[in-house]
């Protein structure tokens, strides 16, 4: 378990090891890499994640990005899509990232880089980064809607002791539909909306959203229906855990219309207590900031 209040104070500041640290936020579409500094994060460098080429190609890409930025990293933190356990990564949606079945990413990167590597779920890292930026003290949920869907929880202790933080696998929760059980990620993610847009004659997700924002009732209806399962599962998580604050991120999540529709879905619920939904204040840097906050885990500090 991680104490966010402690983790976010240390950051990567003061890393005196040769070469210094590097942090990455690896989505199924975009990879961001940067060097943490005393005064914050260096502006990140962006590249396209070769997710469709499989985990070996992604590993090579990450190693290349890291070494081109820092030839001798002292430690590396990787926030990545999918389910992460003991440095192994699994992605259930093979249409987005094929071949990721318990792939030992941490071990492979440590072999390539010859330094300690920590791998965590990207939404978990983003939740920690956003929690730090907001300065909240109550239970907190971060939701990302991008190529896939992810979530991260931060549950501070009421007594000031250790807290829990970790991934909230919203995208991998099944939903009962007329076609049977389907994952939320298959119904509500950016890739799902892209597929839906093509089926309905729209060029891509961007055109679908532009049409909806311009008053196209059909386009807005498609988006509204697609985001409904996600809103249902968000509420199913926030209600029992008394989560009052939810931050929304990701390429699709950052669209104003996505925030509006998800808020309307939440407000229409019978649940008497609805969470406050807002866009992430850190934007797409939340995952990098959160990964930097996990330095104590990498260095063995308390």
Key descriptive features of the protein:
alpha/beta, 11 helices, kinase, 5-stranded mixed β-sheet, disordered C terminus, ATPase_NBD, transferase, Nucleotidyltransferase, domain 5, ROK, kinase activity, 302 residues
Give an overview of the whole structure.
The model is unreliable at 1-18 and 296-302 (pLDDT under 50). This protein is α/β, with parallel strands linked by helices and 302 residues long. It has two domains: 4-125 and 285-299, Nucleotidyltransferase, domain 5 (2-Layer Sandwich); 135-281, Nucleotidyltransferase, domain 5 (2-Layer Sandwich). The protein is globular, with a radius of gyration of 19 Å. The protein is 39% helix and 23% strand. It contains eleven helices and 16 strands. This is NBD/HSP70 family sugar kinase. It holds the Pfam family ROK. InterPro entries: ATPase_NBD, ROK. Keywords: Kinase, Transferase.
Distance between the termini: 12 Å
Under the CATH scheme, which architecture of the largest domain would be assigned?
Answer: 2-Layer Sandwich
Give the total of domains: 2
Say what the CATH topology of the largest domain is: Nucleotidyltransferase, domain 5
Shape: globular
Give the helix/strand class: alpha/beta
Order of helices and strands: HEEEEEHEEEHEHEEEEEHHHHEHEHH
CATH class of the largest domain: Alpha Beta
